[in-house]
Design goal:
alpha+beta; globular; 3 strands; single chain
Length: 76
């Protein structure tokens, strides 16, 4: 991801769906960032958050194409 680019949230969901979306985005040349606060909390010794609230971010320049990919996966 470009450091000067703004990142935007494109999807929040469960780990399996997020991994599927991440794989598809990367195969289309779109870099993404996955934020899993629940797992991070567990690793730090805290129990907080929701296990199905994993987020995917992309740079704003890739937002339109990424949202189309997410929509095609979710509609299946």
């Amino acid at each position: 991801m470009k450091s000067e680019s703004k990142t935007v949230l494109i999807y929040t969901g469960d780990l399996v769906t997020v991994e599927h979306i991440k794989t598809e985005l990367e195969s289309q040349g779109i870099s993404c960032l996955v934020k899993n606060s629940f797992q991070q909390g567990l690793e730090a010794g805290f129990v907080a958050g929701v296990p199905n609230a994993i987020e995917i971010y992309v740079v704003s320049e890739d937002e339109v194409k990424a949202v189309e990919i997410v929509s095609s996966i979710i509609e299946k």
